[in-house]
Design brief:
The chain is α+β, with helices and mostly antiparallel strands and 83 residues long. The chain is built from 4 helices and 3 strands, in the order E-H-H-E-E-H-H.
């Protein structure tokens, strides 16, 4: 989807809800200036792009659900309090 920066500013909440379904290209004066993507999907794409480099990694054989589980666990480790 492609929208103007003014349209995004006016209806930000609506477009944030739509991010799960599609990426949003933001334009200003008819020129593309930014791309709004769902953060989690973008991270999966970035991580999957490393699999060619990390061919021996245990992550290379995981499904997206398994991979998301590993990411979830790693994020939670950052916020655990030490006793």
């Amino acid at each position: 989807m492609q929208i103007s920066s003014t349209e995004l500013k006016t209806h930000l909440g609506e477009y944030l809800k739509r991010l799960g379904a599609e990426d949003i290209i933001i334009t200003k004066n008819g020129r593309k200036i930014a791309k709004l993507v769902k953060e989690e999907d973008d991270m999966l794409t970035d991580m999957r792009s490393l699999f060619g480099i990390l061919a021996e990694s245990m992550l290379s054989g995981m499904t997206d659900d398994q991979f998301n589980g590993v990411l979830y666990e790693e994020r939670n480790k950052r916020y655990e309090c030490a006793d």
